Amino acid sequence: MILPTFFYRYPCTLLRIGRVYLVAAAFAACSRTPAGIIPEKKMQQVMVDVQLAEAMIHMEPNLYPTPAERRALYQTVFRKHQLTEAEYDSSMIWYGKHLDLYMRIYNLALADIKAQMDAIGDIKPDIVPTSNADSLDIWIFRKYYEFSPLLSNRVIFDLQPDEPYSSGSAFVLEWQMWGLTPEMKASVEVHLRVRQGDTILSVKSTAERDGLHEIYLKTLPTKRVNRVYGYILLNTADTTFRKIYLDDFSLMKYRYGSPAIAAMDSIRAAGPAE
Questions:
Q1: How far apart are CA 88 and CA 96, in angstroms?
Q2: pLDDT at residue 26 greater than cutoff 50
């Protein structure tokens, strides 16, 4: 999973919160979710703790070097919320099919963490890349990820530049993937979204094979881009697979009117090669 931008901006604060927050009490509330699915309010609180646990693993890998130690940390989260790992996994599958609700809860969870970080304070944040160049790689996160039965098997990214990107920009998310075999009966679902004022544009793609993958989103020429976000999620019921590897991530932003956008539009208009 990708940690949100502000996780990288305030690593020391995040670890201080994580070590304390994982021992706090939690409670449930009314929800629109079906029976057997974690209710929305409780899911928000669970997401906070899962995010903190994943951040601790990422930022202090020497403390959690083995799958058993990482799993033990997640089990701490599940025990705190009186959940089983199976209940959490089932709920993530259900929420993954209700993207708008999932993103709303996810954003509330991030807001909870950020509010705690702001209250504690830390170093001045880094800036999400912006430029007037025709093209710019705005991916600021790790280039390499692994999906395995012991992890949450999702990559969530969220970029909110201090200076909005220019109207009409196009975005291309690209990565390499291997380890996805036909026997798994699995697919990798990808969502890429942008917010332009009160408008949200979204594209979705499904990858079912190894190799190079990309997803392309062209924005409106009338509004600046305030936010670029989305996720990559492994869809499979198989809990015995070894690992799936994702590497060489890039998220290219192309300025409106650049030759690269014209070339990509031309390729897509022509359709797939025979």
A1: 12
A2: no
